[in-house]
Design brief:
4 copies of one chain form a homotetramer. Chain A is of the alpha/beta class. Chain A folds into 2 domains: 208 residues, Rossmann fold (3-Layer(aba) Sandwich); 44 residues. In chain A, strand 4 and strand 5 form a beta hairpin. The first copy, chain A, is globular and about 70 Å long. Chains in contact: A-B, A-D, B-C, C-D. Chains A and B meet through strand 4 and strand 5 of A and helix 2, strand 9, strand 11 and helix 4 of B. Strand 4 of chain C pairs antiparallel with strand 11 of chain D, so a sheet runs across the interface.
Chain lengths: 255, 255, 255, 255
C-alpha cells in the first residue's frame, strides 16, 4: 500500500486555496479546519490513506470500522477563491512518511489547480484572552496578506514540526505560494481559543462568511473544564499543605 | 524479499469466506482459527512470507528449521460457503509492514474470489464465565448477521489494533464485506474461553459443523493453570503478611 | 544504495558449499569462518555492501578507510566440494535489512551454483571442556550428515536469530539444502572453544584438511583472559564480604 | 519524495574537489565549510533535499520558511582545482538514509567531474591550543598529500560515523580518491579552534587564499563563552561546598 488519495467527486474548482490542519499542539489546526468544514457545510472531495498512519482502525457510532485517514472537503466561494479543507486523524508515524504525505497533499493540490496553501497549527506560549497568530510563508506576497489580516511575523529560528511545516517548505517544488499560521496555545488541552484566533485571521484574509458563535460555545465548555481542573489542583495543594503543616506540628510536639 | 504468498495447491473454491486470527490479546484469534483448522481437518492452501516478520526462524519437532510465516488453509463446505482460514506466527513488526501484510491477504482473498472477510481477536475486559463477543464491520448487512448470531455491537471509539483491524478497514478497497469479532478477555494468558465464545458465534453465522468438546478440554487445562498461579500468589501473600507481622512483633519487643 | 555484491574474480567453482558465520553470540560463527579462511588460504571472491549495515566506516592499519561489509572467499577442494566462506563486520540493523541481506547471499550462492548452505553460530549454554554442537536443517538428508559427524539434533522450539537462521529458512526458495550448526557457548566473550567444536564437525562432514593447532593457541589465550577476569571477580567478592563483616562486627559492638 | 539535488546553475567546473562538512562532533566540519564559503564568496551550485532529514522546517530572518537541506557552493580557483563546498542543516535520520544521502552526493560529484572528495569532521580528544588534525583516506596518494600538509595519520580501528565516513568509504564505487580530515575537539560546544586546524591543513594542501582573521574572532568569542561557563560552574561548586559546610556546622552545634 502506498499513500493514495481516493477522489469522491469530479467537481471542478476555481483556483482553490487549500487549508490544512492536522492534529498537533493544542489540536489548534484540526479544530479550526473542522470548524470551517461544519460552518460552511463543505462537501467531501477525497480521502487520503497511508501506510504511515498508525496501524489501527476506529469504530464509529454505527459500529462501523474505518481506517485512519485524511479528509479533503471543498467549498464553493461565490465572492472569492474556492476552498479545499484538509484534516485527518493523525500525523505520519515516520520521518519518510511525513515527507511522503506532504508530497501527496501537494500533488493533489496541484491537480486541483490550487492557487495557494495555508497550513494551521499551534505555537507554544502562555497565551492570554486573545492568543496571537504568528505567520511564516514561502514568499513575501502571501505573508504580507496575513500581516494585513493582523497576524504577526514569526520570530526567526522557530522550527515548525510536521505536515504544517513540510507543506510550506515543499510548496516551492510545485511553485505554489504557501502560508503557515500558528495560534498561541499552552498546548496541554484542545484549545478552541487559539483556533478562534486563526479563524479571525482567515476571515479577514479570505473574506469567508464564518460565524464564530459556535466556537464561542466550545471555548466556554473548554474554559469550564479548565476551571474544574484548576479547582481540583488547588484543593489538592491546600490539602497537601495542610498535611505537611500537620506533620510539622506533630514534629514540634514530639521533638 | 517482498511479502509474498506461495500457493500450495490450485484448488478452486466457491466464494469462500476468509477467517483471520493472528497472535494478539489473549491469543484469542489464533486459538480460534487453529481450532477450526484442526476440527474441520482443513487443507493447506498457501504460505505467506514477509520481511516484516521478526528476523528469526523456529525449529520444529523434527529438528527442521522454518521461517516465521502465515498459513492459509481451506475447507470445502457442503452446506454453505467454503472457508479460507488464515493464522500465523506473528504480527508485522513495523507500521508499513502491518499495512503491507493486510494488503497481501486481501489481494489473495480477491484472487480466491472470496465473498467476505471475518477477523478474530480479543477485547480487554474482565470477562465472566461466558465472555461476550463484540462485532464491528465494514457494512451494515454483515454486521446484522453477526448480531443475529448473538454478537453485541461494539461501543464506538474503540481502536482495533493490528491485522484484525486493518483487514476490515482496507476491505472496502477490494469491495469485500468484512466483519471483526472480538472476544472479551483479560488478555494475560492464552484464553481458550474467549476463543470458544467466538466459535459459537461463527457456528451460528456460518452453519459450520464444529464440535466444541476439545476446546472445553483446553479451557479446563487453562483454568487449572490459572488456579495454580492464583494459589501460588495467595501463598506468597500470606507468607509476606506473616513476615511483616513477625517484623512488627519484633519491633514491639524491641521498642 | 541497495545491498550489492561486487565480484572480485570470475573463477568457476564446482558445486561449492557456502559456509556462513557473521558476528553473533560468542562470535562463534565469525571465529570459525575466519579460521577456515586463514588455514586454507582461501582467496577473495566478492564483497557485500549494504545500507543496512551501521553507518560508520573503519580505519585499517594503513590509515585506509573502508565501509562495513561482508566478505566471500573461495577454496578449491581437490578431494570434495569447493567451499565459499562468508563472514563480515556486522549483522543488518533493521528487520527488512536482515531479510534483504540473507536473500542477497542466497542469490549469490545460486549464481555460483552452490550445492548446499551451512550456517554457523552460538547457542547459549553453560558449556564444559568440549562444548556440544547442535544441528538443525532445511531437510532430512543434510541433517543426517551432520548427526553422523557428531552434531546433536537441536531441541524443538529453539529460535535462531539473524542471518544464520534466515539463510536456512529462506534456502528452500532457492531449492538449496541448508544446515545450521550452533556451538554451545556462554556467549559473554569471543569463544574460540565453541568455534573449535564447530570446526571438528565441519572437518568430519566435509573432509577438509584443517589443522586445529592455531585455534588451540587462541583458546589458551582466551582461557588466560577468563582466569584473570575470574580472579579479579573473586578478589572483589572477598573484599565485599570483608567489608560487610566489618559492618556486622561494628553493629555487634554497638547494639 | 526521494533524495534529490536541485541544480541552481549550469556552470562548468574544472575537475573540482568536493569538500564536505555536515553537523557533527563540535560542529567542526560545518564551521570549516561555512567559513570557506564565506571567505571565498563561493556561489550557490545546488540544494539537496531528502525525506531522511528531520521533518520540520525552519524560519529565516525574513519570516520565510525553508526545508532542512544540504547546500552545494562552488568557487573557481585561478591557481588550482575548483572547489565544490557542501554543508547542511542535519545528518540523515536513519541508517538507510545515511547511505542514500552519501550516494546522492557522490553521484553529484561524479556528474560535476570531481577529481577528489575531502570530508571534514571532529575527533573526540582533550585538545590543546593547536588541536591536531588526523587523516584517513581511500588511497595512498591523497593520504600522503594530507600528511605533507601536516595532518597526522589516524590510528587504526577508529570508526568514523556519518556522512564524513560513508563518503570516503563509498568513493571507491565512483573511482574517486577521498580523504577524511578530523580535527581534535572535546566536542561539547561548537569548536572553531578545531575548525581552524582543518583550515590550515586545507590551505597547505590546496593552495587556497584563505584569511584566518575572522575565525580568530570566532575563537575569541567561543573562548569567552567557555570562560563564563567555567566561572558559573566554579561559583556553583563553591556555593555547594559552603552550603554543605554550613550543614556540617549546624550538625556540629546540634549533636
Amino acid at each position: 500500500m502506498k499513500t493514495t488519495i481516493k477522489e469522491e467527486t469530479d467537481v471542478k474548482l476555481e483556483s482553490p486555496i487549500l487549508i490544512e490542519g492536522l492534529p498537533g499542539l493544542g489540536m489548534v489546526g484540526r479544530i479550526a479546519v473542522r470548524y470551517i468544514v461544519k460552518q460552511l457545510n463543505a462537501q467531501q472531495l477525497g480521502l487520503l490513506y497511508s501506510p504511515y498512519f498508525p496501524y489501527y482502525v476506529v469504530v464509529n457510532k454505527k459500529g462501523r470500522v474505518r481506517l485512519l485517514r485524511g479528509e479533503f472537503h471543498y467549498w464553493r466561494n461565490q465572492g472569492g477563491s474556492d476552498l479545499i479543507l484538509f484534516t485527518g486523524d493523525s500525523q505520519a508515524q515516520t520521518v519518510e512518511g511525513q515527507y511522503e504525505i506532504a508530497e501527496a497533499i501537494l500533488d493533489f493540490a496541484k491537480k486541483q489547480k490550487a492557487s495557494a496553501i495555508i497550513t494551521l497549527g499551534g505555537y507554544r506560549k502562555e497565551a492570554g484572552e486573545s492568543p496571537k497568530v504568528v505567520a511564516t510563508a514561502s514568499d513575501e506576497s502571501i505573508l504580507r496578506k496575513a500581516i494585513e489580516a493582523d497576524a504577526l511575523p514569526s520570530p526567526p529560528g522557530n522550527p515548525i514540526v510536521g505536515t504544517a511545516g513540510l507543506l510550506v517548505g515543499m510548496a516551492r517544488f510545485q511553485k505554489l505560494p504557501a502560508l503557515c499560521l500558528l495560534g498561541e496555545t499552552r498546548g496541554y488541552l484542545p484549545d478552541p481559543k487559539a483556533a478562534k484566533s486563526l479563524l479571525i485571521v482567515l476571515q479577514k484574509m479570505l473574506g469567508i462568511p464564518l460565524s464564530l458563535d459556535d466556537i464561542e460555545k466550545e471555548i466556554e465548555k473548554s474554559d469550564g473544564i479548565l476551571e474544574r481542573m484548576q479547582a481540583i489542583e488547588a484543593r489538592r495543594e491546600t490539602y497537601t499543605k495542610k498535611m505537611r503543616k500537620g506533620e510539622e506540628d506533630k514534629t514540634t510536639y514530639i521533638s
